[in-house]
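Troubleshooting entry. The earlier prediction with 2-(butylsulfanyl)adenosine gave an output that would not parse, so I re-checked the input for stray whitespace and re-submitted. Clean input:
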Amino acid sequence: MMNMRSSKRKEIPSGIYNSIDEIESVENKKTAQKVVSKLRDSIRYHDYRYYAESNPIISDSRYDELFSKLQELEKKYPELQSDSSPTQRIGSELLEAFEKDEHSSPMRSLKAIHGKKELKSFYDRNLKELNENTVEYSSEPKYDGVAVELIYTEGVFQKGITRGDGTTGEVITDNLKTIKDIPLKLLQVQKSKIPSQLIVRGEVYMEKDSFNEFNEERRRMGESVFANPRNATSGSLRQLDPSETAKRPLRFFLYECTKAMEQGFETQFEMFQKLGIWGFRINRDNIQIHTNFEKLYDYYQTMEAQREKLPYEIDGVVFKVNSFFFQKKLGTRSRNPRWAIAYKFKSKRNTTQLRNIIMQVGRTGQLTPVAILDPVTIGGVTITRASLHNQSEIDNKDIRIGDIVLVERAGDVIPQIIKSIPEKRTGKEERYTIPENCPMCSSNIVISDDKKHARCTNLDCPAQLRERILHFASRGAMDINGLGKKTVEKLIRKHYISSIPSLFKLTKEMLLKLEGFADKSADNLLREIKGCLSDHSLDRFLYALGIPLVGNHLARVLSQNFSSIDKLFGATREKLLQIDEIGPEIANSVVNFFSEEQNLETISKLLDLGISLENPLISASNSLEGYSFVFTGRLDNWTRDEVENFVEKYGGRVLSSVSRNTDYVVVGKDPGSKLNDAEQKGIPRLTEQDFLDLLKKKDISPK
Ligand code: IVH
């Protein structure tokens, strides 16, 4: 077996900028032209290291500075503008419709197989037809995204087309330009000459985590949600406004080059290596070369086992005859090439009956309809529930209680109902309408006109209270161990808690009256609750409060812009809107939250209880943002956890191993092999005292 992991480009090209300090002074148009060109090459190379290789050599802040410098020079010298400049990823031109264009050669589909026997037939047939003892295969993941064709002329990205019907697709060039994994201009390498016309194909996709975040954001904003990352990708590529596509977290893996032999490539492996060097993102970690049949089958099994852990969706593996000469010999029959095959995994979809729809109450009173399903196994996991999001979704998909529905489970994505199957209806199915009263507290439910939001109006609703407390106690928030759903429910039922501050009035006697609590567990929980009053940063506290739309990240942004909670109380909508990442919805949400009597009371009670909110007062000057550290050996003044939390609190990054993008290696007593790594890679080393001096310089007081 051979894999591609070791074939990354290792040398760093000379003649690129790694920091703006290296930029020559620009006195006239001629020097501007030189600097602009070098800046573009540098940014292209840094993009490649960051996106294609996941191995950047400069920090984000240094990159941002280079990028701003290029923007500044292009503005000053508009005559130097170029479409392939890295600043030109997001065009502003709005289209009315997509043009159609024909592919230079058909974009075929792969024959799909589902078993080992079929794989063996494919394998044996190739040996026989090629009259060989062994045949090499390129084993690749089968990405579950959207196939596209990219055309490069003289190394510059000219045109991008969807697969369409295989012969003709839609021209989506401007949308594809917004994807950073797709190079706008190929990287020039000395020996290998980039062909004047290069056509490559690959898959655009969305990573599972980004998809979840993106969908969650849409749900919050009352927009329709996508059933899976593939649909989200396809929808994102079909935006008529490229600036909208630019906001979507799209990625790209290359898997094909047309006329590969004419381009001088002998094998699929060689093609991947070359195109990887020219700037394309190749899935080096998971592409392998095999000859032995059992190895092919092992690959299939391994990838299936790893499927859930991969950050992106795959629905099978692809085996391609590695040699292009052999590919040509085997040829194509009707729609599928005979030199490749897609071995599909078991489906992640299944049908089941929708038994009931219940309403789930969130911590801010938002109500979400949830489908209760007849238990069904999908990819080895039993599914009993799926979110239906809102009334509008239910109506659009015409989902009724009693329907047979198609359910899809994708990795850690919440199970989704793709559609109902009306042909299977018996006539007993019932349409569903969100009730008028909250199922938990019977208060009125308010439904928005577009039927995309439903909310329980009672702030004291026990379900809301339960969710608020659980959120307050959760890991990214106040981190109270042992305060789980069951315990919170029992505490509410017994009327021991009625608000967040009432948590702190719990006594041992109360806890001992709850089923499942004994002396030790009661003491532990009380200690955890009390413990959360000390040493908390403002951002975690803000997050814990559960301000609608304010997740971890925004809580951090707010705490970076307001030195104390008092300042935030007084913040007007206008003031909030001055912050880069805060738009009107979030500003409204924050202002509304702090104008609600009950919320103010909660906060003031918590402050009275003595909750300590040390705001690190992070600002541009006293932050470690953009710095990455590796620690090795024992430090005199900190434990490893302490120092790592400290660095992260001030916006810095702690890496577990030394790479070229490490800024400093801090060396304590009895250092490990990381010291060696630092020496070899030429990464600056700091003693504990140097580290303290660095903090001092940044105006950060240690601990
Ligand atoms: S090769 C002639 N390689 O599967 C075949 N396709 O049914 C050229 N796909 O539309 C395609 N991962 O969207 C190839 N590693 C991979 C792939 C892959 C996913 C998709 C592609 C294509 C479909 C073929």
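This one parsed fine. The two ends are 51 Å apart (CA to CA).
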